[in-house]
Amino acid sequence: MAYDARVLSGIGVLAAIVEAGAFSRAGEALGLSQSGVSRAVSRLEGRLGIRLFHRTARAVTLTDEGRRFYEEVRPLLDGLEDAATRAAGSARAVRGQLRINTDAAFGHFVLARRLGDFLQRFPDLSVEVVVRDRMGDLVAEGFDVAVRFGEPEPSALIARLLLRTRVLTCATPDYIARHGRPDHPSDLDGGDHTVIQFRNPATGHPFDWEFHRGTERVAVRGSGRLTVNDTGTLLRACLSGLGIAQPLELYAKDYIEDGRLVPLLEAWTGERFPLHAYVPTRRHTSAKVQAFLAFIGETARSAEISH
Q1: Residue 253: exposure state from Cβ atoms within 10 A (0-12, 13-18, ≥19)
Q2: In this structure, are residues 114 and 296 in contact, taking their beta carbons and an 8 Å threshold?
Q3: CB-based contact 94:125 (threshold 8 Å)
Q4: Cβ atoms 101, 145 nearer than 8 A
Q5: Residue pair 54/23 in contact by the 8 Å Cβ criterion
Q6: pLDDT tens digit string along 140-190?
Q7: Which residues contact 290 (CB under 8 A, 6 or more apart)?
Q8: Taking the model in full, what pTM does it have?
Q9: How many CA atoms lie within 13 A of 106 on its CB side?
């Protein structure tokens, strides 16, 4: 295909639609009318010989061919943006809009608390945080990066390990005064203690309670009538004295430091849970994504308890 400036222009319109999620909002961002956006897409579709979007009254989504094309050209657009920034002699290559996909717990307990520092560090950058239970399709929905706990599932995305945080066992001082402190994980199976179960979204069943000490592994069932599927609810129930919980260290830190929660079975905290960042491609990672990955890595590590 010979070079055609209209193709590059159309690709820019394509990227704007994916990021905005609608033709009208893309037009506002580009200074074009909705009909102008539609014409640019039609020209690009004609030039490529494929249909790029499924369009309904309620949503605009990429077709399979459109998604594949966008996955190929998105890194090139980021590279063009970075090259233009460098050519302009700017010392702040981190700019534009960064769309982040995360779950509610990480967004609430870690990310939102520290985003002010990130925005202050990069004044030419705007950030959109979208909270979701499931990661979904990063490319089709125009996300730059996702942050999720757990082992990566097979996909075309690139997973980057940020850290492995401890799984802690906690209760309130009042609960310990009423029920005593367990000395061994097996004490949780004896009926003297109540545990708060947390449902695994991947399996639909509560997470197993497993304790690690060196090479030792002890699994317990525990007894309790409360099961939750949200970290905020888990912590609130535990803070109310309803039982013993197993939050991640990242989320329990503040409550432990101010004394509202007490860590239990501290010799058995060898279990770690991984935190990954996901990006669509290994090549041509944009400056804004690189900056965010560095920031979120240091942020996650600083949110842990020193030990």
Answers
A1: buried
A2: no
A3: yes
A4: yes
A5: no
A6: 888 999 999 888 877 778 888 888 888 999 999 999 999 999 999 999 987
A7: none
A8: 0.67
A9: 24
